[in-house]
Amino acid sequence: MNIQEYLARISYNESHQDADLQTLTVIFQHHIQAIPFENLSMHCGETIELDLQSIYNKIVRKKRGGWCLESNYLLFWALQELGYDICILGGNSYEPAMKTYTSEINHILLKVVIKGNSYIVDAAFGGAYQAWQPLMLISGKDQAQIPGVFRFMEDNGTWYFEKVKRKHYIPEQQSVPFTDTPELGNIRKIYTFTLTPRHINDFQELNAYLQVSPDNILRKKSICSLQTTEGLYALVGWTFTEMKYNYMEDVDLVQITTLTDEEVEKTLKDKFNIVLENKLVPVNVRGLPPNLVDTI
Fold first, then answer.
1. For the segment 20-70, what is each residue's pLDDT rounded down to a tens digit?
2. Which of 64, 103, 171, 275 has its CA 20 to 30 A from that of 140?
3. Residue 156: CB atoms within 10 Å
């Protein structure tokens, strides 16, 4: 494994001599705009191995993406190589349909300390809840970014991560209806976490479980999302969504298209730069919110 090869994969060719916030921010933005959040392996008959060499080969050399366990672990390795003070944390994601957080840890995120200040770095939550910059770990402070306003709230050692939702504008000529998950107010809960440091081996059981459990959303939907310079692309099953942030004041533009199987393959290549080795079987189990925009 080679850090220069990783930096080339994310098209980062600036200086990385200083492990400072500015460098971290630019590397982070390159990562989320080059490496999709995706679970396509499990819908191609491929096994996802949670070891660094396998992840490196898949994402860096085969130019694939990965889900949170893969993408954030690769970023953890890269930032360690670049000299950052970094550790792995575990999160419990919010399930809108159940209106509660998961009882077990099901997400990996990173904490970076720079000059005594702690930042949360999470490159792999995907969709419209993906931050575009590291977030200062401070309770109650609104942190405005292009995707929206994010904030942390801390209560007795548990941190709550949330985002202020924007309105969505969907052009009338689109044939696929857009469904939003009704919630109180305009706050979207994302996940909780504590500051207990974790090791990647703490997530091995989760990695295996998510690939076989029929009840989790990653089995019920084939997902690929990528942040762009203006917003994001998301492919869920045969549904392709393009989102542009702040298309109008406090309004995001959402364009939704239903694809054929052939168009799915072409879209993966053209929009996500992904060419799969094995045949994808798109999945989008109905009865669940159909759009990545408000579920992942």
1. 999 999 999 999 999 999 999 999 999 999 999 999 999 999 999 999 999
2. 103
3. 4
Question: Is residue 199 among the annotated active site residues?
Answer: no
How many other CB atoms are found less than 10 A from the CB of residue 295? 22
CA distance 161 to 269: 33
Helix (H, G, I), strand (E, B) or coil at 267: helix
Catalytic residue list contains 107: yes
Q: Does the annotation count 122 as an active-site position?
A: yes
* Eight-state DSSP code of residue 28: H
From the DSSP assignment, how many helices (H) and strands (E) are in the chain? 7, 15
End-to-end CA distance of the chain: 30
- pTM comes to 0.92
Cα torsion 251, 189, 96, 41 to 10°: value is 90
Cα–Cα distance for residue pair 110/120, rounded to 1 Å: 6
**β-strands 231-236, 223-227 pairing:** antiparallel
Active-site residue identified among 30, 68, 224, 294: 68
pLDDT in tens, 17-32: 899 999 999 999 999 9
